[in-house]
Design goal:
alpha/beta, seven-stranded mixed β-sheet, 7 strands, binds S-adenosylmethionine
Length: about 220
């Protein structure tokens, strides 16, 4: 099988060159990430997992905001992880941020990190790139601690409140990177919450440019 035929190979092909300009360019259009980090409220001594951590940008900001928590990141792309490891080292956070290659839809975190469940799990602009995204959302919920744990998701919305030309142009641009906004994200997270006996808080941000959901266990 050619390398690009696998999910990991496909992501590596996209990010091999993009990773060098990723943080600079994406800060203008991956909106809602900072709000999600601000509202993580990671407990002291707690554990936080990011699925699809990319360059480590979110983990570094979150690790600074919650200095008593430990952070774990999974990404399928070794190319992205090269940049993430460099960024984490530059930030002086190698002792608090652990990174590993894995598939968010099925990762066994006990085997990878020795941790079965986390206080916080978050997924930022990755569900829109993962074909089995519904299964990934359900898997992420299974990795949330039963007592007081939460799952946080931010990603592209349907852009329903934005002008048609903007929406069409953005969709075409995103398709170049294999990004598909998940129109039924709210319904899927509601189902995940129901299945876990948890409750969902959901918001459409910036005229539905982005969608943001938090599933909280009791
Ligand atoms: C748009 S980037 C977002 C990166 C980061 N979460 C952020 O907010 O800046 C999507 C990331 O998801 C990763 N990814 C895609 N499919 C994945 C999968 N099945 N498992 C884990 N990571 C995946 C990509 O390699 C990429 O790093």
């Amino acid at each position: 099988m050619a390398d690009t035929d696998t999910a990991a190979g496909h992501m590596d092909a996209i990010y091999r060159s993009q990773r060098h300009i990723y943080d600079l360019t994406r800060k203008y259009y991956l909106l809602g990430r900072d709000r999600m980090i601000a509202e993580l409220n990671a407990p002291a001594g707690g554990t936080v997992l990011e699925l699809g951590c990319g360059t480590g940008r979110n983990m570094i900001l979150a690790a600074r905001k919650y200095p008593a928590a430990r952070f774990y990141g999974i990404d399928i792309s070794e190319e992205m992880l090269i940049t993430a490891r460099g960024n984490v080292a530059k930030a002086g956070l190698t002792g608090r941020i652990t990174l590993a290659q894995g598939d968010a839809s099925s990762v066994d975190t006990t085997r990878t990190f020795g941790i079965a469940a986390f206080d916080r799990v978050y997924i930022s602009y990755a569900l829109s790139m993962i074909p089995p995204w519904r299964e990934t959302a359900a898997h992420a919920m299974a990795l949330v601690k039963p007592a007081g744990g939460s799952l946080h998701v931010v990603d592209f919305g349907g852009q329903d409140g934005l002008p048609g030309f903007f929406r069409t142009g953005l969709r075409a641009w995103l398709a170049k990177f294999s990004v598909s906004p998940r129109e039924d994200m709210e319904a899927v997270l509601a189902e995940v919450a129901r299945g876990a006996g948890a409750r969902l808080e959901f918001a459409r941000l910036y005229r539905d440019y982005a969608r943001y959901g938090v599933v909280r266990r009791g």
